[in-house]
Write a structure and sequence with these properties.
By secondary structure, the chain is an alpha/beta fold. It is built from 3 helices and 7 strands. The strands form 2 sheets. Strands 4-3-2-5-6 form a 5-stranded mixed sheet, covered by helices on one side. The protein has a two-stranded parallel sheet with strand order 1-7.
Length: about 140
């Protein structure tokens, strides 16, 4: 007698696995590859936090913005980020903003960005960093 493997329920199992992976997948609002500065402290961001990205691309400074729901999109500079921040802060004053900046960006550009966020009414800003491991060079 030959052994038979029942395959009638394989489609159901595959469908359930697809649904499971769709539900558990985390959606990233920004996938820009940035060399982050390192830090010894760590704090979790809120779900739905807005992202401001500053990085160099082909020698030019590029600014991107995400409201935490949509994928980040390029904006022309700190003034556009001020407009977006003031619009969001007006609707939700407790919304957290995360600045994701390349470690090679000059500080005066980050300072200008932080000033624009502050003028826009943003109350909580986190700077995204890479966690420094024990034994890493300073």
């Amino acid at each position: 007698m030959e052994a038979i493997i029942p395959t009638a329920s394989m489609a159901d199992i595959a469908f359930l696995l697809i649904i499971f992976f769709m539900v558990t997948t985390v959606h990233d609002v920004d996938r820009t590859n940035v060399a982050l500065p390192s830090s010894q402290t760590r704090e979790e961001t809120q779900k739905g936090a807005c992202y401001v990205v500053v990085h160099k691309e082909n020698g030019n400074i590029v600014y991107k913005f995400s409201d935490g729901k949509e994928v980040s999109r390029p904006v022309s500079g700190p003034n556009d980020i001020f407009l977006e921040a003031s619009r969001i802060a007006h609707l939700d004053s407790g919304r957290q903003f995360v600045v994701k900046a390349d470690k090679d960006i000059r500080y005066y550009l980050i300072d200008e960005l932080l000033d624009n966020l502050r003028r826009g009414g943003v109350q909580e800003v986190l700077l995204l960093t890479h966690a420094k491991q024990v034994g890493d060079a300073p």
